[in-house]
Design goal:
This protein is 35% helix and 18% strand.
């Protein structure tokens, strides 16, 4: 398994490209890199599992040469195996498929290993984390959604019920003595950074808010300062 960020590693910050200007995606990708983000979070939805449609593989492939930032895909699809080979070919570095979307998650993880891509699991807000426990040693990352899938289109904000879930997942990972990246996405803003890092999150995917600030680089720097204070106290 590839190394993932540990609890005391510097927080990774990404941005959900889905919230950017779809008429100028190339410009948005360049803007995110210039702002000092660590990754680009790409939502790929099938319109069934998640009530929207995200980026097709050909769009991801077109954007891939524009940045050195990792492309990390949140895959919300009823048949994730069908999407994985095209996404790998397009340049995805990590794919997180929903545990709720498959009957046999171990088999899907094995299929992903054959595709030579880093593997992760995404978990909806209402899914018990106990479903993850046997799978933790086989993944590089777990993405916890901090609002109900699809609610973002209705203007729903960050749901604080994710915080005890982050703490519970942190304890589960520590108990397994593995090094798994804990990601959180869904309405995340600067005001949530300190609590999420204190709970044990190691990667945050910032949503629409990052595109609305006057100075994106300053916003990213402010988030890093907040995270650093908490990380220093954890060491």
């Amino acid at each position: 398994m590839d190394a993932s960020p540990s609890r005391t590693a510097r927080l990774r910050l990404g941005a959900a490209l889905f919230n950017g200007d779809h008429g100028h995606l190339a410009d948005e990708v360049r803007r995110l890199e210039a702002a000092g983000l660590d990754l680009i979070h790409l939502d790929v939805f099938d319109g069934y599992f998640a009530p929207d449609q995200g980026f097709p593989a050909r769009t991801i492939a077109a954007l891939r040469p524009l940045t050195r930032l990792p492309f990390e895909v949140h895959l919300g699809a009823l048949d994730p195996r069908r999407f994985i080979p095209p996404l790998v070919e397009a340049g995805a570095d990590l794919i997180l498929f929903h545990i709720e979307s498959v009957a046999m998650p171990f088999e899907t993880l094995f299929f992903m290993r054959e595709q030579k891509v880093r593997c992760g699991l995404a978990v909806s807000l209402g899914t018990p984390l106990s479903a993850l426990e046997p799978l933790i040693p086989d993944v590089e990352a777990v993405l916890l959604l901090s609002r109900v899938t699809g609610e973002g289109m209705c203007g729903a904000s960050f749901d604080r019920r994710v915080l005890p879930r982050v703490r519970a997942l942190r304890a589960m990972i520590d108990a397994s003595q593995t090094d798994v990246d804990i990601q959180v996405a869904g309405g995340v803003k600067q005001e949530h950074v300190a609590e999420l890092v204190a709970a044990g999150a190691t990667t945050l995917a910032i949503g629409a808010g990052i595109y609305r600030v006057a100075d994106m680089a300053a916003e990213v720097a402010a988030m890093r300062r907040l995270a650093t204070r908490i990380e220093r106290n954890a060491i």
